[in-house]
Design goal:
Layout lengths: L2 H4 L3 E5 L5 E2 L5 E2 L2 H8 L12 E8 L1 H14 L15 E2 L2 E2 L3 E11 L2 H8 L4 H20 L7 E6 L1 H7 L1 E6 L3 E6 H9 L6 E5 H4 L7 H15 L6 E2 L6 E9 L9 E9 L5 E10 L14 H19 L5 E6 L5 H14 L2 E9 L17 E5 L2 E4 L4 E2 L4 E2 L8 E7 L5 H11 L15 H4 L1 H8 L17
Parallel strand pairs: 4-7, 4-8, 8-11, 13-16, 16-17
Antiparallel strand pairs: 1-18, 2-3, 2-12, 5-6, 9-10, 13-14, 14-15, 17-22, 18-19, 19-22, 20-21
């Protein structure tokens, strides 16, 4: 702990685990227990997918094995002391939905097509050919009279081993690193069909993770990608837009001083959109921070971009805006953000939500601090979004948890207690898994994952705003 912090008394406060809302307005703190008892949030609503048309891409072997694995899990998976039972994906339980398979929604990778890819000597050419092969199969599925709602890509071991990643030099880009999943996800956006890559170890039961945990995560993601809402938050302020701002680098080392702003915006129901912002020149060697910062004009334009697109996608304008960023707000950023927000909304708050490990609480028990513990030292505020979950009597990590630090707060339109409680709620809004919560709020949690895929989307192609195409 720094000398400055050590001279102040520590004040603590505890926030009870936030409830989530499920089918028929049922409430529970845990996603798995809530879905098991009440069904998903959109069950009984127009958003609920009663039936999901499942498409498949893969070799004859992986198509057969992936379908068999899915069908063996839809009936439910036994749990154990640490992993709750998965109730299944059936009409009468679990997600209250069914999966439909049909040969018309299958595109097979033939052995000659696979061998043609694997025999390519150049790693770069082999990688781009593999992506093109998968994309071509998805394109064919998208052109069916009735295309599938969701596509499972059964990746054969040989393809993944030879094409998972590639590093090469390009005269226009410099040193380039690419990843098969990211490249395919970016290409798949053109066809507007959500996808899931499934590895052979998973479909063959060789995955080291617990089977019920795998099933929970797989089918929660499937339900969301098919258009459903697994659960909703409680306690978020109505008509509020929660915004996360981060940055990512374009492909290639020659653009190491270029950053592109990335915005993720959510409403009080957990519905989110992804936006690619403006390019930002940033050279850490010439600045006082490694984290990129916006000038006043860029910050103003970014807020205008968010609120304009939010209005288009959500069909409403927010009355309140909360902005999350993992670095502090420089004076020019503050001026730009505030000038734009004052014109559009009545209330706003800018928060710096920073992961750190320098300051922790040490308990006298064998358990780590409770998730939901807030403590402040002087003007420094911390909150544990991971830790021991008292409502469940469980600790979900193998590592000693560290609290988030709120190192900056601009606006002051909302009590700090309410802002911290919102962060705790937003840490539970990851619909890509059934985990209870994570370190970061969803506003900034997906920043790296989304940025990695946006890096593969050409500048002249507008990326899709829906999160289901990135996970």
């Amino acid at each position: 702990m720094s000398t400055e912090l050590a001279t102040h008394a520590i004040h603590c406060q505890y926030f009870a685990e936030p409830f989530l809302v499920f089918g028929n307005d049922g409430l529970h703190v845990d996603p798995k227990s809530g879905i098991s008892r009440y069904g998903p949030r959109s069950y009984g609503l127009t958003r609920h997918p009663d039936n999901v048309r499942v498409g498949q891409i893969g070799t004859a072997e992986t198509i057969e094995k992936s379908k068999a694995w899915i069908e063996s899990n839809v009936n439910g998976v036994m749990g154990d002391e640490k992993h709750p039972e998965f109730p299944g994906y059936q009409k009468d339980r679990g997600f209250f939905s069914t999966l439909q398979f049909d040969n018309n929604w299958v595109e097979q990778i033939t052995q000659s097509e696979l061998e043609e890819v694997l025999w390519i000597r150049s790693p770069r050419d082999r990688f781009t050919t593999a992506v093109a092969l998968l994309e071509g199969k998805l394109r064919l599925l998208s052109e069916r009279d009735q295309p599938p709602d969701y596509v499972v890509v059964g990746l054969p071991d040989a393809l993944l081993q030879r094409c998972k990643v590639v590093d090469y030099y390009d005269k226009n880009l410099g040193e380039v690193h690419r990843d098969l999943r990211r490249a395919f996800k970016a290409a798949a956006m053109k066809y507007r069909i959500p996808t899931q890559l499934l590895r052979q170890p998973t479909m063959e039961g060789r995955d080291r993770d617990n089977p019920s945990k795998i099933a929970w995560n797989f089918f929660t993601g499937l339900y969301f990608k098919a258009g459903g809402i697994p659960w909703g938050p409680t306690g978020l302020s109505p008509s509020t837009c929660y915004v996360g701002i981060s940055f990512y680098r374009p492909l290639g080392s020659l653009f190491s001083q270029m950053q592109t702003s990335l915005v993720q915006a959510f409403d009080e129901h957990g519905e989110g959109i992804v936006l690619r912002g403006h390019d930002v020149e940033w050279d850490p060697s010439k600045q006082d921070s490694r984290s990129p910062h916006l000038n006043e004009e860029q910050a103003h334009k970014l807020i205008d971009l968010v609120l304009d697109r939010y209005q288009q996608e959500m069909k409403q304008s927010p009355r309140r805006v909360v902005v999350h960023k993992t670095s502090q707000y420089w004076p020019a950023e503050r001026e730009g953000f505030q000038a734009a927000l004052r014109k559009r909304v009545n209330r706003y708050d800018l928060l710096s939500v920073e992961p750190q490990s320098a300051v922790r609480l040490i308990t006298q028990s064998k358990y780590p601090p409770l998730r939901g513990t807030r403590f402040f030292i002087g003007n420094q505020d911390f909150i544990y979004t991971t830790g021991f979950i008292s409502e469940l009597g469980e600790f979900h990590s193998l590592h000693v948890p560290s609290p988030l630090r709120i190192s900056d707060h601009v606006g002051q339109d909302t009590p700090r207690v309410e802002l911290l409680r919102e962060i705790l709620i937003l840490s539970k809004m990851n619909w890509n898994s059934a985990h209870l919560g994570g370190l970061l709020p969803i506003t900034v949690r997906f920043a790296r994952l989304v940025g990695d895929i946006l890096r593969e989307v050409p500048p002249d192609r507008e990326p899709l705003p829906q999160f289901k195409f990135y996970i």
